[in-house]
Amino acid sequence: MFVRGFERRLFVFGLAAILPGLILAGLWALDGGRSGWQRALAVLVGGAMPLLIVVALSRWIRHPLRTLSNQVAGMREGDFSIRVRGAGREDAMGELVAELNLLCDDLRSRRLEGVETATLLRTVMEEISVAIFAFDHEQRLRLVNSAGGQLLGRTVGQMTGRSAAELGLAETLRGESSRVLDTAFDGKLGRWALRRTSFREAGQPHQLVVLTDLSRTLREEERQAWKRLVRVIGHELNNSLAPICSISGSLEQLLARRPRPSDWEEDLRGGLDIIQARAGALSRFMEVYSRLARLPAPSRRAFSVSEWAGRVVRLEPRLPVRLASGPEVTIHADPDQLDQVLINLVRNAADAALADAGGRAPEVEIQWHLKLDQFVLIVRDNGPGLAETGNLFVPFFTTKPGGSGIGLALCRQIVEGHDGTLSLSNRTDGPGAEAVLRLPLSGP
Questions:
Q1: Which one, 34, 284, 385, 421, has least CB within 10 Å?
Q2: What is the pLDDT of residues 239-257, one digit of tens each?
Q3: What is the pLDDT of residues 84-105, one digit of tens each?
C-alpha cells in the first residue's frame, strides 16, 4: 500500500509539474490562426512528450526501490548475500543503497559468528562428560548432550520432547538449585552434583540442569587417601617392627650361645628396653590415629570469640601472644574442639617464632574480623616461614623432631566439621607464616 501510494503521489506530482505546459499547449493548439500540423505539434510537444517523461521518470525511480525491496526481503529471509550495484554517496538514493549493503555485510558477519559459536557450543557439550539437560516452561526436554543420553540409557531422539517426570528427572527441577543427589539413573546408583539455572528463549522461561558424576572422583580420592594412609602406617609400623625383629633375633642368638658372654644380662636388658620403647611408640601412634578416626560430631553452643581467644592465649607460657582488636562476635560452635584447634595453631606459631626469628623478638599475634557471612581468625608469627606447604595437612607428616604429624590434620578435620576452612601460608607482609581459620556465622 505504501509503495503504491508512493508511486501514485509521484505520478500526480509529475502531472502537476507538466500541467502548466499542457494548458499552454492546449490554448496554443486551440488558436484558430494555427495550421493543423502546428496544432498537432503543440499537443505532442506540450502534452504527450511531458507525459511520457513523467512515466519514464516514475519507472526510473521505481526500479531501484524495488531492487532495494528485494534486498530487504532477502535479509528478512536470512539471505545476506544480495548486494545492490552502483552504490555511492553522491545522492540520497546512493547513500541508502550503500548503507543497506553495509548492513548486509554486518548481519552476515554476525550470523557467521553466531553459527560458529553455536557449533563450538555443541562440540563442547558433546565432548564433556557432564550431563546437560534443558527443559522448557512445561518441563519438557528441549536439549540434551550425549553424556545425558548415556546417563539415562537413551538416544537424543528418544528423550527430546518428553517430560522430566517421564525421564526420571523431575527431582532435579525441585529443591535447591545447587546440591548433591544420591540417586539412581538408569539403574546406576551414584552421587551427583546438581547445578540448575534459568534462562529465557523466545520469551519463555527455561531451566538448564547440569549433573556431574561425583562417584568416580570420590572413589579416586578415596583410593589416593588409602594409598597415603597405607604408606604412612606402613612407614610407622616398619620403623617400630624392624628394630624389634632385629633385636629379637640378636637376643635369640645371644641366649643360644654357649658359653654366654659375661655381659649377656646387660645386653639382654638393653635389647628388651629398646623393644619396649619401640612397642610403646607404636602403641602411641595407634592411639593418635584412633583419635583422628573417632573425632565426635561438634556439640555447638554460642560463645564469645574474645573470651575464647583470651582463654587460649593464657595457655602459652613461653611468650606473650598479642590479641589485636577485633569486633565483638558470638559464634555457634563446639568450644572444646575449637580450643584444641587454636591451642595447636598458637603452639605451632610460638614454636616457629622461638626457633628462629632472625634476630627479631619472637612474636605471635591473633586477630579476627568479619567478611560477608564468615568469621575469619588469623594467627601470625614472625618465624622463618613454611618451607613445605603441600603436605602440612597430611596425617602423620611433620617437620618437627619428635612431632606426631597429627595436630594440623586434626585441626582441619575439626574445622571442616564446623563447615569451615583452615589454611596455612607464608606471610606476604614480612617474614613468618599465618594460619587462617574461616567459620560461617550462621547458627545451628
A1: 284
A2: 677 778 888 888 888 888 8
A3: 776 566 666 677 777 788 888 8
Residues 258-293 pLDDT 10s: 888 888 888 888 888 878 877 876 777 677 666 666
% of the chain at pLDDT higher than 90:
8
CA distance 422 to 439: 9
Candidates 239, 168, 279, 264; CA nearest to 405 is: 239
Is the pLDDT assigned to residue 323 strictly greater than 80?
yes
Q: What percent of the chain stands above pLDDT 70?
A: 71
pLDDT at 297 > cutoff 90: no
Cβ contact 366:313 at 8 Å: yes
Instruction: Give burial (CB, 10 Å; 0-12/13-18/19+) of 209.
Output: buried
- Is this prediction's pTM over 0.70? no
- SS3 assignment for the chain: CHHHHHHHHHHHHHHHHHHHHHHHHHHHHCCCCCCHHHHHHHHHHHHHHHHHHHHHHHHHHHHHHHHHHHHHHHHHCCCCCCCCCCCCCCCHHHHHHHHHHHHHHHHHHHHHHHHHHHHHHHHHHHHCCCEEEEECCCCEEEEECHHHHHHHCCCHHHHCCCEHHHHCCHHHHCCCCEEEEEEEECCEEEEEEEEEEEEEECCEEEEEEEEEECHHHHHHHHHHHHHHHHHHHHHHHHHHHHHHHHHHHHHHHHHHCCCCCCCHHHHHHHHHHHHHHHHHHHHHHHHHHHHHHCCCCCCCEEEEHHHHHHHHHCCCCCCCEEECCCCCCEEEECHHHHHHHHHHHHHHHHHHHHHCCCCCCCCEEEEEEEECCEEEEEEEECCCCCCCCCCCCCCCCCCCCCCCCCHHHHHHHHHHHCCCEEEEEECCCCCCEEEEEEEECCCC
> How far is CA 403 from each of CA 61, 339, 399, 413, rounded to the nearest angstrom?
96, 20, 7, 18
